[in-house]
Structures are given as structure tokens and as C-alpha cells.
From TrEMBL:
<dbReference type="Pfam" id="PF12843">
    <property type="entry name" value="QSregVF_b"/>
</dbReference>
<dbReference type="InterPro" id="IPR024530">
    <property type="entry name" value="QSregVF_b"/>
</dbReference>
<protein>
    <submittedName>
        <fullName>DUF3820 family protein</fullName>
    </submittedName>
</protein>
Length: 78
């Protein structure tokens, strides 16, 4: 994990599905768990969802709080 990945969790928006437009860091735990069971998407998006799943599963979402202090610039995956 690198610091840029943590920043991306707060800026990258989910590009599809029920939670389209919501940043990865704000996806609910049950949705992250579904990906863990069914398979993460390929590429950068999948890696970030897997990282967020690990943070959520291990009750570490609070590690993102200091990064939330800055207003993030949102972006969509390429």
C-alpha cells in the first residue's frame, strides 16, 4: 500500500452499479464483502476496492479520517 492509494480511496468514484458516483472510501461494508466473495474487478479499481475491503474488515476505516480533512478532488477511473 502506498499513500497515493489511500488518497485515491477518497477521490475515485465507483463507476457503475448501485453505488455509482460514491467514492470508494464511502462504499458500505456489505458491498465490499460482496466483492470479496464474488471477485474484485480487474485493474486499479479492483485493487482499491480490495484495499477498502481490508480496511473495513479489520475496522481500520478511521485511518482515512486525517485525509478527509482536506477537500478531495474527485475523479473517475480512466
Amino acid at each position: 500500500m502506498n499513500p497515493e492509494s489511500l488518497n485515491l480511496l477518497l477521490t475515485l468514484e465507483m463507476p457503475y452499479g448501485k453505488y455509482k458516483g460514491r467514492v470508494i472510501a464511502d462504499l458500505p461494508g456489505h458491498y465490499l464483502g460482496w466483492f470479496a466473495r464474488e471477485g474484485f474487478p480487474s485493474g486499479e479499481l479492483g485493487k482499491l476496492i480490495a484495499l477498502m475491503y481490508e480496511l473495513d474488515h479489520n475496522d481500520l476505516r478511521h485511518l482515512l479520517d486525517p485525509l478527509r480533512q482536506r477537500p478531495p478532488a474527485r475523479r473517475r477511473p480512466a
